[in-house]
Give the backbone structure.
Amino acid sequence: MRPANEEELSGMVRAARGPLVVRGGGTRSVGRPVTGEMLETGGLSGIGLYEPGALTLVVGAGTPLAEVEAALAAEGQRLPFEPMDMRALLGTEGAPTVGGMVSANASGPRRVQAGACRDSLIGVRFVDGSGTIVKNGGRVMKNVTGYDLVKLMAGAWGTLGVLSECSFKLLPVPEAQASLRSAAMPPQEAVTVMSRALGTPYEVNGAARDADGRVALRIEGFGAQVRYRLAALEEALGGEWERVEGAASADLWRGIRDVTAFAGQAGDVWRISARPSDAGEIVARADCPVVMDWGGGLIWACCAEGRDLRADLGAFRGHATLIRGSEATRAALPAFQPEPAPVAALAAGLRAKFDPRGVLNPGLMG
C-alpha cells in the first residue's frame, strides 16, 4: 500500500485487518522483524512550506531527506541536528526520508550543541492506529498545549502513528568549519579531553573518538572566528593536535556521524547511550572496537554476532540498542533496552491510546 495523501493514509490504516509494516525509505531496518502488510509513505512527499526568512520548513513525511537538504543548501540553511545516514552501516539501499528520520530521532555529532531531532521538530501531522488524523504543534516554538505529541513521535519508530507531515526550525550554514585531531589515546583519557573541550568558551559542536582511538573536536562559524577559537582551544588543551579544515573536516565528521568505520565489517553493532563519566568503564566491559561521540555520551560498539552485549555490560545509567544484527539475532534479543516497570506501563498505555488495535509495527520495539 502506498497512499498518495493523508486522507488515503487514514483510510488504509482504518481498513487494516492485521499488522502493518510502516516503511519510509527502508534504510533503517532496526528492531524486531515485523510480519504484516507493507504500508509505504513515499507518496506523502513534497515541501509544503519553506520560509527561509523565518527559518521554517514544513514537509511531507515521505520526502527524501536528500531533496530537503538540497533545498535548504540552496538558501544557505540546514537541519541543526545533523541526521545520520544508516545505509552504509546497515548495508541497506533506498533513500532516507523525513518521516524515517523523525521516527528514529536520528541525531548526529552536533547534538552536543544543537540538540536532537526532536528539539528542532516543531509540528507533526500523523494518522494513529484507528485511522484518525492528528495534528500537534505548528510553525513556531511556543505553540504546545496539552500533550506534546511532537516530542512523543520522535523516536517512536512508527509504533504510535504514521507520520504524514513534519515541521522544523532551521539554522544557517556557518561560513567555515575546522577540527582538531589527536593521536590515539585510551577511552577514559579521551573522555577527559572531550569534556574539557566542551567546557571551554570556544563553542565546540563536535567531540568524538574514532575507531582508531583519535579524538576529534569541531568548531564552526565565521572564518576568522573559527581560526581564533581553534588556536585558543589547541592552546587550552595542550599536547599535539592535527588541524583538519574545510571539506576534509566535513568528511571526517560525516564518517563519525554515519559510523562508517563499521560499515562492511563482520559483527553486530550496538548503540549505547550513557553518561560520559561512565564511558571508560563501559568500553572496557564491551571489550570490542568502539566509536565514541557526544563527548562520550554515545558509544557505537561492533561485537561478535549474536552476543548479548547488554547482558555483558550489566547495570549502568543509560541504555543499549541493537542497531545491526541478523534477523535471527534481532528475533532472539530485544533490540531496545527493556524498560523499568513504571516506564513500561506508561508506554503500554500510550500504545493502547494511539494504536488500540495494535496494527502499527507491532512488536518492533518489544
